[in-house]
Prior knowledge:
By secondary structure, the protein is mainly beta. The chain has one helix at residues 76-80, and strands at residues 23-26, 29-32, 39-48, 53-61, 67-74, 85-91, 94-100, 115-127, 132-134, 143-149, 162-165, 168-170, 173-175, 177-182, 184-186, 192-199, 213-220.
Amino acid sequence: MGASEGLGLNGGTLSLLEPPPATMIVESGSAPADGNGTTGDARILLDNSLGGVQGFVTAVTHDPAGITLESISLGTDTTAANAEFEITNIYTDGGTLGVVLDFNSPFAGQTIPTGTGLHLASYTYSCNDSNIYTEGEAAPPAASSALTLADGVLGSPALSNVIVVGGLSVSPLKSDGTFTCEPIAVPAEDTILWMETKFDTEEGNYAYLGQTGDLCFYYKDDDDYIQGFTL
């Protein structure tokens, strides 16, 4: 049957849509600015619908005046995919991580599957300065440092943030974050230290030439124990 027999033909269009690109994300993190080197993590996440990830590189810069990069570790999704090769480099102002999922024989072809919020890595930072205030006082502002997915800055040769899908390096969209050094409140000081003199009460509790006695030191703290002292 054709048009001559009454078959109507209607034209149309076919649109081939480009798949949504992958996005690499720095999830903001924080640590207490307690002066003890306490650390906190900023996770590197990936939203990806392009295909299984065979490898990736992350390169994140920070402000060395405010925070220190202590370590870089694999994320839960990277670990779950049994990554076989990793290399990290830590610099004063940032750090890089390179990962290959299937690096060793028998080359089973493992990948990080598609998904959203995939945890690729964790960057662990500490705060350089303490920020401590007394409870009841106004809290000081927190200090923060930008965490930037920086291409062509770190390493020699300089590395860029990429994922490998289908054997091809793909530059994902990038979403930067921050690392915050949170101020720490401490209880108000309520320890009391005082001295008393004690003389022989049989001769009267007062001093006279040649008399001996004791100079006694006392302390009082209702919510803490003494750990040591210096006089």
